[in-house]
Amino acid sequence: MQSFIRITLFLAFFLSFFKNQAQNPTDWLFWQFSNMVKYQQPSSGESSQRNYRDYGFQIVMTKDSSKRSDVLTYRALGELKYGNYDRAFADYEAAVKLNPKLAGEVGWRYLFLLRDYARALTYLQAFDELTPNFDDPIDDYSVNYLKGRAYAGLGDHENALKAYSLTISQRAARLGIEWVDYRYLVARGVSYLVQKQAVEGLADFDMALKNYPKSSMAYYHRGRALEQLGRFEEAKTAYRDARFFLLTTNAFERDYYYEQPDAAYDEDIDEAIQRLR
Amino acid sequence: MVIIRVLTAILWLHAITGYTQSITPAQLVGTWIGESVEVDLNTVVPLPYRLTFRPDSSVQMAVMANRLATRTVRWQSKDRAVQIDTIKFNPAQWTLKGNQLIVNGWAPLRFRKLTNVSLDSAAVLKRIVGHTWSTDSLSYSLFEDGSVCLKNEKTGNTALHFWHLVPVEESLFLIIKGSQEAEDRNTHYPVQITKINSNTLTMQGWKGEHWGDFTLVRTGDLKPNQRCVPSGFQLCNTFLVPTEAKYMYAEYKRGRLGAIRRIVAREFQPMAEAKQSGLVRFRFVVNCEGKAGMFEMMTLDENYERCQFDPRITDQLRRICQEKITDWEPGKGTGTDKTIYDTSCLLTFRLKDGQITEIFP
Question: Do residue A37 and residue B87 have CB atoms under 8 angstroms apart?
Answer without folding.
Answer: yes
